[in-house]
Amino acid sequence: VTQCDASSSSSTTSPNNHKPKNSGDHRRKTTIRQLQQFSTKGQSLEDVYEVDWNTALGVGAFGAVYRALHTTTQQPVALKEISKRFTDNTAFQREMNALLHIRKAGGHPNICTWHEHFDEPDKEGGDSSTSGHYYVILDLIQGGEMFDHLVANGAFSEMDASRMLREVASALAFLHGMGIVHGDLKPENIMLSHDNPSSAVVKLVDFGSAQTTDGPPWETSGWTTAYCPPEVLDDRRRKSYMEPCMDMWAVGVILYIMLTGVHPYDLTGRATDEDIEKAILSKKPIPLRDSPITAHLSDSVLDLIAKLMDPNPRTRLTAHEMLEDSWIKGDTASKDKMAFSDKKLSSYKKFMSQLGAKVFADIVKWSDDDETGQDHNDENGNHGRSASRGGHTSLIERSFQSFDSQRKGYISPRDLQNLHQDDSNKNENDDDDNDDSATGGSSVDGKSNAHGTNDDTHKIKEDGRDELETPPLSLTGFSNLLSDSMKNRYFPKGHTIYRQGDQGDSMYFINSGVIQVTTQDGSKTTRGPGNYFGEGALLQKDQRRSASITCKTPVHAMEISREDFDKYLAASQSSELLLSLKEKDKIRKKNRARAALRLQKNLEERDYSNGEALFLYGEEEDQLYLVEYGKVDVMIDGKRVFSANPGNLCGEFSVLTGKPRNSTGICVTEDGCIAQVMKGKHFRKLVQSSPYIQDSINELSHRRDFKKAVVRRLQKEFPYENPREAFDAVRNGRPNQPKKNKNATTKSVDRLDVDTIGSLMRELNPSYTDEEIREIVAILDLSNDGTVTFEEFKKVFIANIRTSNAM
């Protein structure tokens, strides 16, 4: 177990030996200021974590590390206790500076995550900047160092090494793109998440030698000779600052060691640092080709090592170039030492369709549940979890763990079969419209015989292996199986992935990094790790991109083609996945429309006291309201329909229809509300140049009118916590009235048609036309079959409570 430690005991040069004059105090003050600024406020360490102070997991250069448990999520973490007396230590300053940069940039799943930290003074008093401790919460990494695995187990297989080095390269591309050089890469500073290398994810640790290239230049220091390139070891060539090419040389050395078990400049393991330094500076070729040490390696990996250990730093391979290498992608890596061959791996091919569909659906669901990386206010004014707090688990690793629920470190055929059966049973029980729910059969490939079993099913032993000895599927194998349909894409900082109006043929899941979403009318938002983008073009008939996507940081995304997108939707056992994607797309477009309205210059700011009305039922007024502060309850017949929080709008009905108000808006915040008022003529001028804004606001208004009609029929607030009550009120008529068809089963009538919705809406306003009713049905009908099912109803009004309350 380890943490992001700043100890550099094997370094040949002490960081403090090269401290520039007159800069130490400035660095110290900067470090203290940043640690104070970004510390967790309003809660103490004891409020959030249970810490096992009795047993230290380890002791680093600046303090001990303990196991802790988040009291709410029950997530185990590593807690590092650091005395503030180390704030004048250069290595401490380097590490804190680098980790804070990484955290602010969104984090990366292959870099030890700094979750949060607490700045707590000494209980006995004193200067708060020098007395007391910092308590840093980090990933708990339990697989040990790569170095220990090399010592215990020898060389890695090419396929495992390829996947691990792809993760290292992704982390370095992220760091280098953000202006950070690690400066001391070596097997000891690459941790594994699991004791089985084939199922372990790598984590870079120890940033005590790191440098941020966008800040004041810090001298090269704290390196480990055996992993240093010649330009750093040569006093005549050494620069006063580190460059990314230094890390890439170290990666070449690490790769050589991973595959051969020996250091390229110390084949016997007995050389001193001085011997290794002389060998590196001599530019003597390492044993690479025509050598018994590397005879078992593929030509492609030998080429890669040569490019990484190029003596010329200007032509040395970069991290981004490394990610495009065929060996790193796994295309040409030898499988000689893998636990299974291509032939054995093919035994899992029969699971591919369901496996890919399950991973796709899970990632969509996780994004909806977590709102990961949404660095903006949601429709109810809640600030979403910042991207800087995410990124500690890759999407592939999280997907792998969802199958390997017992954390065995591998997936067996039983894991896949059981999960599929669980999903099938769940869908049969939950989906009232599933005509096959009585068959009782389920299978991995969707084909059941009369007895409810699959012809290809093997008998499974207790250890998870089947009688035909199908091998367990490691993380490496799992990743390779998915790679054909979920392609890794790496984009540099500042890169535009696509532009608004482009033809769209794919969508993307963000594995690491942060993107900016921009529309031509000026609205902007960000999305981070775990989120997705580009789905709109795959759902819309015109197949056009509705926004431009630019990388705010280096981004690693998984690309899903239109063909695979359609395949995953078809393989889904229910309509839930499609409904989720469609509703998310609608919500995002409404958010963009709101953002565009807020950018307009012809807004008038007004203050409202608690209990004061912004608008009243029956008024003939041509303006809408954008809430800046406080909460506005929109009501009908004295009952709340929804609340408009900061960032939301209300009063749009009259602007869109030219009709009198059909609801009342009241400020319900004790210290008052602030709203920006937009006149109808300015709104109509805006939508002439941006028709999608009118479409989005019009859809928002129709959904709200539907809820107003439900509230009027129920004569109570809209029941967000009980969607069945609201749905039945629409389907069955007014409360206490007899059902339209007493003999009809719930299953046969569990949907709303045009007549049913028309009857409801005309109770709100008898002047509703047939065309307007059909438009409302189309807005609620996510599956485009002319009716609204209960599942669609829940998705539109209930599934995301934070957004549905405002829609």
UniProtKB/TrEMBL annotation:
The record's annotation in CDD domains points to: CAP_ED (cd00038), EFh (cd00051)
Q: What protein name applies here?
A: cGMP-dependent protein kinase
User: What family is this protein classified in?
Assistant: Belongs to the protein kinase superfamily. Ser/Thr protein kinase family. CDPK subfamily.
The entry's ATP-binding residues are: K80
Where does the record place the Protein kinase domain?
A: 51-328
Q: Output the lineage of the source organism.
A: Eukaryota, Sar, Stramenopiles, Ochrophyta, Bacillariophyta
Question: Ranges of Basic and acidic residues compositional bias?
Answer: 373-382, 453-468
> Residue ranges under compositional bias (Basic residues)?
18-29
The entry's keywords: ATP-binding, Calcium, cGMP, cGMP-binding, Kinase, Nucleotide-binding, Serine/threonine-protein kinase, Transferase
The cross-references to Gene3D superfamilies, in alphabetical order and at most eight, read:
EF-hand, Jelly Rolls, Transferase(Phosphotransferase) domain 1
Q: Where is this region: Disordered?
A: 1-29, 371-392, 412-473, 728-747
Q: Which PANTHER family match?
A: SERINE/THREONINE-PROTEIN KINASE
